[in-house]
Amino acid sequence: MLDADVIARNVEEVRENIIRAAQRAGRDPAGVRLVAATKSVPPDRIRSAVEAGVQILGENRLQDAVPKIEALRQAAAGLSWHFIGRLQRRKVRTVVGLFELIHSVDSLDLAAEIDRRAGEAGVRQKVLLEVNVGGEASKAGVAPAALPEALKALEAMPNLMVSGLMTVPPLSADPEQARPYFRELRLLAQSLAQATLERITLSELSMGMSSDYAVAVEEGATFVRIGTAIFGARRG
């Protein structure tokens, strides 16, 4: 288990890598936000990352997120929680309004449920649409070819604020293998942003994790979801 000093050094290293990757791509590093992925990480270790400057926390599991949010409520002002895991429809009611951003809206059925629950709660829920750029049967997400029609359907959901796209590329030990998928997501967002969509913006791209986030930043990521590179290897 990593102590607070190691976690702080890891956070600094990740931030430096993000800055260098952005500069290589001619981007402003301020346009890339670090989401510390807290799956299986206890509150005391998360607090160490917050004390090191992390402002956005991403959780995969609702049942784990709720006690962590409560435990860290006093840790720092302005903490933002994002939901980054696969979301089951039966858990939408609790997720809506609890998280500032849901990264993993992987189907129109799920989007419709979020829209319904957000309407009941009187909020507009900010979301990203997950795209299965690798076409993997084992992964959820909208197929790239189906994106135009999906965005038209999302445009008709008044309680959603769709602000971009998210993807998880096929697993590979070589970060460069992920580059074509990250590039495809960026090009899709750029091309679809030209469509007549009054209520949808595609300015956010959530892509890149501990093994490949530098490549993702070079290809246009605005959110990178980093767990292991900050907290070390975890179980579960």
Protein topology:
Elements: H1 4-24, E1 33-37, H2 43-51, E2 56-59, H3 62-71, E3 80-83, H4 92-95, E4 101-105, H5 108-121, E5 125-130, H6 147-155, E6 160-166, H7 179-192, E7 204-206, H8 213-218, E8 223-226, H9 228-231
Parallel strand pairs: 1-2, 1-8, 2-3, 3-4, 4-5, 5-6, 6-7
Describe this protein's structure:
- The protein is α/β, with parallel strands linked by helices and 236 residues long.
- It has a single domain (4-231), classed as Alpha-Beta Barrel (TIM Barrel).
- The protein is built from nine helices and eight strands.
- The chain has helices at residues 4-24, 43-51, 62-71, 92-95, 108-121, 147-155, 179-192, 213-218, 228-231, and strands spanning 33-37, 56-59, 80-83, 101-105, 125-130, 160-166, 204-206, 223-226.
- Strands 7-6-5-4-3-2-1-8 form an eight-stranded parallel β-sheet.
- Helix 3 (62-71) links the parallel strand 2 and strand 3 (80-83).
- Helix 1 packs across helix 2 (43-51).
- The protein starts with a helix and ends in a 5-residue tail after the last helix.
- The mean pLDDT is 94.
Which tags fit this structure?
236 residues
Low-confidence parts: none
CATH superfamily: Alanine racemase
Number of helices: 9
Q: What assembly state would you assign to the polypeptide chains in this entry?
A: single chain
Order of helices and strands: HEHEHEHEHEHEHEHEH
Query: What does the largest sheet look like?
Result: 8 strands, parallel
- Our estimate of the beta-strand percent is 15-25%
Shape: globular
Q: Give the total of domains.
A: 1
CATH topology (level 3) name: TIM Barrel
Q: What is the CATH level 1 assignment?
A: Alpha Beta
> How far apart are the first and last residues' alpha carbons, in Å?
15 Å
- Return the CATH architecture: Alpha-Beta Barrel
Class based on secondary structure composition and strand pairing? alpha/beta
Q: Determine the mean pLDDT.
A: 94
Strands side by side in the biggest sheet: 7-6-5-4-3-2-1-8
Radius of gyration: 17 Å
